[in-house]
Design brief:
Pfam families: WD40
Largest sheet: 4 strands, antiparallel
Structural class: alpha+beta
Keywords: Membrane, Repeat, Transmembrane, Transmembrane helix, WD repeat
CATH class of the largest domain: Mainly Beta
Strand content: 25-35%
Distance between the termini: 71 Å
Number of strands: 30
InterPro entries: WD40/YVTN_repeat-like_dom_sf (IPR015943), WD40_repeat_CS (IPR019775), WD40_rpt (IPR001680)
Protein name: WD-40 repeat-containing protein
CATH architecture of the largest domain: 7 Propeller
Organism: Streptosporangium roseum (strain ATCC 12428 / DSM 43021 / JCM 3005 / KCTC 9067 / NCIMB 10171 / NRRL 2505 / NI 9100)
């Protein structure tokens, strides 16, 4: 009996061990299967994310290619790209597409110079030996279908016009020609311009070279003219019919002035000469221009601009631009040097507060920059024009209106409300357009074989773009 009981006890202990082993094995198997499942899910999610990324970037690329030929399709594809995978590339692409819808052709006539009043109401475009005057209030009114033509033409130069400028209120205009003469115009009634006076760039008419740049102070009382002999002439326009020459300074011994900017009060200026040197000038006493400081980039500068308050200066060259703070004009502080996707910079413009810049060059697009954080300028959008290149740009005081001119004509941009577009391009694209759709044919054409149903297509004939979920794939 004792032997039998012992055997039974041994069997019981063995069975318990087997049950324990089975439980342990089951737990280990469950852990292994769970871990394998997690690995599989992680790999599947990673593959799905990569698929979404590739699809989104592909759609964004197609959208960019279609902006001119099919803007509606470009918008829908760009929005789908952001919905599927929102990153810097897809968002920038959608913003560029939305901004592209805000551009229009002002004139197909080639123009090398443009100017804009501070309120964006009056524009000047130069072509040959004449300058056209435009009333943009009617051009920008969406209720007006048949856009009016120019309202006046400024004539009087014997040779081509090389510079134009407007006062903030648009009532005083300057047109400078290759004949060395700058004409002062009264545009109080822009449809009936009045020629007030002619200004010589140098100390005498014979001393004046071709006018390359011109600027007028906010109140229209101070004008600064630069010519290709290197003369920078300051004029008092308090009596526009009898301007008084205040000073003439040769910026460099053997170099011309290619670009310059003027503060709103006429008390400060910045110049870029033919050698690429950037110089800040104190014009507190207009009869005695004083060089305050020199600004240097790693390479020679090609263009410059100054904010209306005279506290911000921007200068640039091929692929690079620099930003300076001029709270103390005698001691400029470099706040940023940033890369620019332009092989050269032909012209640039700043808003009154110096927080928005427009740069242009040998490209069919002007580049808008957000300078509100001086130490970190950020690209905002590309303004794709109609020209092979852009020679001249202008911004209204608040950046709401922009002009870009070149061999292909002049483009007008309505940028009012752009901040909302940049902040949330998805919302801007879907606002008032919740029916944005991509049909099966376009999906098959542009989606690279991605499964239609994974992104909300299902059994429908169209994909409602505004309702694509970022993680729907």
């Amino acid at each position: 009996m004792n032997d039998l009981a012992g055997v039974r006890q041994v069997d019981a202990r063995g069975g318990a061990r087997w049950r324990t082993c089975a439980i342990v094995l089951a737990v280990l198997l469950a852990v292994f299967l769970a871990a394998a499942g997690l690995v599989w899910k992680r790999e599947r999610d990673r593959a799905s994310a990569q698929e979404r990324l590739a699809l989104a970037h592909g759609l964004a690329l197609h959208a960019a290619e279609l902006r001119d030929a099919a803007p509606g399709t470009a918008r829908d594809l760009g929005l789908a790209a952001v919905k599927i995978h929102s990153d810097g590339q897809t968002r920038a692409g959608l913003i560029d597409t939305l901004v592209g819808e805000r551009g229009d052709e002002l004139t197909p006539v080639a123009s090398g110079e443009v100017a804009l009043s501070g309120d964006g109401r009056i524009a000047l475009t130069g072509a040959g030996d004449e300058v056209s005057v435009w009333d943009l209030t009617t051009r920008l009114d969406p209720k007006i279908v048949d856009k009016p033509d120019r309202i006046a033409v400024l004539k009087g130069h014997k040779e081509d016009v090389g510079a134009v400028a407007l006062s903030f209120d648009g009532r005083t205009a300057l047109t400078g020609g290759d004949d060395g003469v700058t004409i002062v115009w009264d545009l109080t009634d822009p449809a009936k311009p009045i020629r007030m006076a002619a200004l010589a760039g140098g100390k005498t008419t014979k001393d004046a070279g071709s006018v390359l740049a011109a600027a007028v102070s906010r109140d229209g009382r101070t004008a600064v003219i630069a010519d290709d002999d290197g003369n920078v002439t300051v004029w008092d326009l308090t009596d526009r019919s009898r301007p008084a020459r205040l000073s003439v300074t040769r910026a460099r011994t053997s170099s011309y002035i290619r670009d310059f900017g003027l503060s709103a009060d006429g008390g400060g200026a910045v110049t870029v000469d033919g050698d690429g040197a950037v110089t800040v000038w104190d014009l507190a006493d207009p009869s005695r221009r004083v060089k305050s400081a020199g600004l240097a980039l790693p390479a020679k500068s090609a263009a410059t601009a100054m904010s209306a308050d005279g506290r911000v200066v921007l200068a640039g060259n091929a692929y690079r631009a620099g930003l300076w703070n001029l709270d103390d004009r005698s001691r400029p502080v470099s706040t940023a040097v940033f890369d620019v996707p332009l092989a050269d910079i032909y012209d640039m413009a700043l808003t009154s507060d110096g927080k928005i810049a427009l740069l242009a060059g040998p490209s069919d697009s002007g580049i808008l920059w957000d300078l509100s954080a001086p130490s970190g300028p950020a690209r905002t959008a590309a303004l794709k024009g109609y020209a092979r290149e852009i020679d001249s740009v202008a911004l209204s005081a608040d950046g709401g209106i922009a002009l870009a001119a070149g061999p292909g004509g002049v483009s007008l941009w309505d940028l009012r409300g752009l901040a909302e577009v940049v902040a949330d391009p998805e919302r801007a694209a879907c606002s008032g357009n919740t029916n944005a759709e991509i049909d099966k044919a376009d999906w098959a054409r542009y989606a690279g074989g991605a499964d239609w149903s994974d992104y909300g297509g299902g059994g429908s004939d169209v994909l409602a773009v505004c309702f694509i979920s970022p993680g729907s794939a």
